[in-house]
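Justification of resources, computational component.

The compute hours requested in this renewal are based largely on the per-chain cost of generating structure records like the one below. Each record pairs the submitted sequence with a full structure-token output. That output is archived, and it is also reused by downstream analysis tasks.
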Amino acid sequence: MVEKSHLSVEQLPLHAQATHWSAVSIIAICAAAMITLLLVTAVAYKCYRRRVMRNAQNRLSSAIKKGLKESSSGKRNSRSSSSLKASKSTSPITPPEHPSGPGEKLSPGSFTMLPDNMDSPRHISGKTETHHRIEYEKGGETPEKEEEKRMIESDIKDKHEPKYLGALNFSAEYDEERSALLVNIMSLTDLPPRDPSTGGCDPYVKLQLLPEKRHKCKTRVLRKTLNPVYDETFTFYGIANNQLQGITLHFVILSFDRFSRDAIMGEVLYPLEVEEVCKQRLTLCKEITPRHLKFRVQGCGELLVSLCYQPAANRLTVVVLKARNLPKMDLTGLSDPYVKIYLLYNGQRIAKKKTHVKKRTLNPVFNESFLFDVPYNEGLQNISLEFLVLDWDRMTKNEVVGRLEIGTRTRGAEYHHWNEVMNCPRKQIAEWHKLSEQ
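The structure output for this chain reads:
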């Protein structure tokens, strides 16, 4: 039998001992190298995250400084212009008793009023219009300033009242052989001017069939006219006789703008009368009405939002959960809502996010979370959030459904929610809030 002998390292030959120690040293060196590599990687990642956070803070600080500079420069310019105009005036100006024209905008420091007959073609073809400008400052109440404020309030009130927007001439007939509906847009008459310099506008008409909104078309744009003549016929195929009962012709009148979104001038709705359309060609003249005028009396609905402040990371988490009881913005009795969120620093917008669009619902569920970086070591004292609920529309400009602001400058439930978020960091706090008009 062969006996096995167990020898220690010292009892091995010299070349065997050298081989053993070299293997051990190689293993130790490899382990040390791996540990060193892991440590270097961790340190590099930490430095990278710190640099990313520092760059984000620098960008946020630069945006805040830029917004503050713009606001301060705007205030200085407004003060200098108001003081210059006040020094030139030597007697109080009596405001005329005319509402503002359709194209004029009010500013906090001044407003412009045009004569009542600005909308009529007779005034446009006549002499140049007269402008009366009134300047006023806050404080130092005088009878003249009180009269000016009353005129401003009445002017704003008159501006929101519906005015005559013109008329649309069109015809409709049904071809049973081809199962087609033929709509001819003939002309527009007595449109209000959109450009004060030329006294005209660049109108065109968009047409769609409700409630499906599948068939859409539009006319060409006619330049610088208040009485455009189109005479364009649109044929909608694949419409059976029994489908005419629920169809409504929806005309939207717009004014083309090369540098911004086209302005909506008004709309015309005409539910088809099946018996009349099938017998003969109907020629109609309908007055143009303001866009969605009948929806203004409805409430704006409510929005459920959840907020969480993380002081260590200088972050604010905003979760838009859902909305309820939104107004009916579409003629189908539904809406296509989405939400825009703005982060405000001292009243200046410095960041924005938005949710996805939820189609055909008045009670949308969003469940979308957003992260906002707040200024370093500032807290939430000068921060606020603005929420805009909008109705998405493929054909025209998206319309604001309601507005909500939460912050230290607000009152009631909004201020209580914000105060609770500041006092309870790292905790999600959700509350319902009522939406208000613009």
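Residues 14-88 form the longest helix (75 residues). The CA atoms of residues 9 and 21 lie 9 Å apart.
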